[in-house]
Design a protein that fits this description.
Layout (H helix, E strand, L loop, with lengths): L1 H13 L1 H5 L3 H15 L3 H13 L5 H13 L3 H14 L4 H15 L9 H10 L4 H24 L3 H34 L2 E4 L4 E4 L8 E5 L4 E8 L2 E5 L5 E5 L3 E3 L10
Antiparallel strand pairs: 1-4, 1-7, 2-3, 4-5, 5-6
Helix pairs in contact: 1-9, 3-4, 4-5, 5-6, 6-7, 9-10
Length: about 260
């Protein structure tokens, strides 16, 4: 009974809020934004997608389409932010991955990146198989299968069957823990991501959190940085090539924000 209550809580926390946001007015705005994009009215399309975000309709497809509209509207850094946001919501979105790679290549060229350690890389690669929501659904399905096999284990009279159901239950338990961890981790990152994109214009990285700090390097629009420390109005960040320094807070947009442009 406690397990079923826990499953219900997971569903309520992760799934119900997403469904309640998808009202009919939001659906109409989504259709309007898509139509404007198809008519090559890219600036109006971007505005409508952002109006959609204000309505609380936030999905990977909205950010993917907004990214396409930003790119067509000559806002490459905004497009990069949108594709990154899309992949934060659904790491398995193949089109967003392909578009992000393309825009990064033509905008930033060949960046020098410090490779991730093996365990972080393996964890991220596993998460990229599907979205955090799919991991949540997987957890629920696996828990149901686990309960079923455990009951069969208790009811089985044959030692051979009991060994089989016991082994299967152990495997399902590990799968349940893994899928739950991926779901919780993905949901946490969506809300509290430390990654940000430099948008709109190049950003001066300094050695200290003040305008008098020594300039270290310029970070061009579209670069993804990871925030290490907050000291308003400054952020200590690390770039993909491992360079660390301080930048103005208003020069980047975090991936847990609503949009790459101000949305009130």
């Amino acid at each position: 009974m406690k397990i079923m209550k826990f499953i219900s809580l997971i569903v309520f926390i992760f799934i119900v809020p997403e469904l309640s946001a998808q009202s009919q007015p939001a659906e109409d705005l989504y259709s309007k934004a898509n139509a404007l994009y198809n008519e090559k009215k890219y600036e109006e399309s971007v505005e409508t997608y952002n109006e959609l975000l204000r309505c609380g309709y936030t999905s990977d497809e909205v950010y993917y389409n907004l990214g396409n509209a930003c790119f067509r509207n000559n806002d490459a850094s905004g497009a990069i932010w949108c594709y990154e946001k899309c992949l934060l919501l659904n790491a398995g979105h193949d089109d967003a991955n392909a578009n992000l790679e393309y825009v990064n290549r033509i905008t930033l060229g060949n960046q020098e990146n410090v490779p991730e350690n093996f365990f972080r890389y393996a964890w991220h690669s596993l998460y990229a198989i599907m979205s955090w929501r799919s991991w949540t659904y997987t957890f629920i399905v696996v828990i149901i299968l686990l309960l079923t096999t455990f009951i069969l284990f208790l009811l089985s009279a044959s030692n051979r069957n009991r060994r089989f159901f016991f082994f299967t239950s152990a495997v399902l338990l590990m799968a349940a823990l893994l899928s739950l961890a991926q779901s919780l981790s993905g949901n946490y990152n969506i809300k509290h991501s430390k990654n940000a994109i430099v948008v709109h214009e190049a950003l001066q990285m300094r050695s200290s959190p003040d305008a008098g700090g020594t300039g270290i390097s310029m970070i061009q629009p579209g670069i993804k940085v990871r925030i290490l420390e907050y000291k308003t109005p400054w952020l200590k960040v690390i770039t993909p090539d491992g360079t660390q320094g301080w930048v103005a807070e208003d020069g980047v947009v975090q991936l847990n924000a609503l949009s790459p442009i101000p949305v009130e």
